Input
Amino acid sequence: MAAAQATALITGASAGIGRELARVFAANGHPLALTARRKDRLDALAREIGTAYGVPVSVFAHDLEDPGAPVALHRAVTQAGIEVGILVNNAGFGTQGAFATSDRAREEALIAVNVLAPVKLAQLFLPAMLKRGSGRILNVASTAAFQPGPSMANYYASKAYWPAAGSVDTSLS
Ligand SMILES: NC(=O)c1ccc[n+]([C@@H]2O[C@H](COP(=O)([O-])OP(=O)(O)OC[C@H]3O[C@@H](n4cnc5c(N)ncnc54)[C@H](OP(=O)(O)O)[C@@H]3O)[C@@H](O)[C@H]2O)c1
Output
């Protein structure tokens, strides 16, 4: 019998790249834990994937703008008995326009979702991966990380966070 595949926790799985990554992981036999704000979309994707690929799919609705959301998500996933082997930090959004007149709350929310949430989720899920001696974290950045972004300065800077942070030596295989 083939070894069980690691469970992938994917943020921003209700749309776009996250939804496609969910389909790809499932097609490769990985059980899934999916999160985003729009639970109806996550539920529909879970039904689609369950039917198409037969892997277990759990859904967790959280708003990553909320500073407490990563801890709440980690707690909910753990209480559900799910061992996360792959963390996919994908949720993110951009803003556009002149920085001087930008909406301060929206720009802070961008940093919360694009930077703070991935950092917190990595801090929360990494220790168990290290303890097991296996695990993966995929941070979805962008080519925006490597160039200036006129009218999208905060978004481009947020995408530069992971390449700038560099690789973390976790001694994981
Ligand atoms: N599209 C591109 O061309 C492109 C290129 C390079 C990199 N990227 C990166 O790829 C990632 C996904 O982008 P995408 O184009 O697939 O975006 P998208 O289609 O707009 O999807 C964004 C996902 O993030 C979730 N999300 C947004 N705000 C959230 C919040 N406050 N709390 C929880 N989840 C939230 C959304 O779910 P809910 O709205 O249901 O919460 C949705 O599932 C982003 O990190 C983006 O920077 C995109």
